[in-house]
């Protein structure tokens, strides 16, 4: 399903390119396929990021890809407050079905505010705030993630063209500003539930996500 790639979302273009050092690669057996796991270290912060690939992603053909920011509560603790865990699983499954693709797992918990602050934001949401209001009440922007982290990872893997699995136009804009060609947006919409209904509604209404 092709969807419009244009967006009016604003991306912080003054953020310098991130520096990442490649560390190592290994096999990653999963329920869907045996992927390759590539580790990178961010010298400035010490944070560790990974890319997960399947097949030959360096042959010049557009790569089915997902940029996924860390969500401990959703990815590992099965939280129903967000759609992160199901999106991660769905993306890996789609890549496995296609036999080729890449997923970039960025250590940017809580849209870039960190785990403890995310839990503080959850506490405010329990009291009635939405996700944007909670972040702003804590002194943060609604979304502080830096997708420029992807550039050295993409360069290392020799990827220049993407079929991007996302509902977030900001990611498309960010990739294009890095010189990547996004030839298709592949929607990644998962099931709503009573716990994430307001979260998803806020994503669409206040952050421009295409749901």
Quickly list its features.
globular; 211 residues; 8 helices; disordered N terminus; 7-stranded mixed sheet; alpha/beta; single chain
Describe this structure in words.
- The two termini are 14 Å apart.
- α4 (115-126) crosses α5.
- The chain has a seven-stranded mixed β-sheet, sandwiched between helices.
- It has 211 residues and is of the alpha/beta class.
- The protein has eight helices and seven strands; from the N terminus they run ββββααβααααβαβα.
Order of helices and strands: EEEEHHEHHHHEHEH
Question: Into which percent range does the helicity of residues fall?
Answer: 25-40%
By secondary-structure content and strand pairing, the structural class works out as alpha/beta
Q: Average pLDDT across residues? A: 87
Radius of gyration: 17 Å
Distance between the termini: 14 Å
Numbering strands along the chain, what is their spatial order in the largest sheet?
1-2-3-5-4-6-7
Query: How does the major sheet shape up?
Result: 7 strands, mixed
Number of E-state strands: 7
- Strand share of the residues? 15-25%
**Backbone shape:** globular
The quaternary organization reads as: single chain
Poorly predicted segments: 1-15
What is the overall number of helices? 8
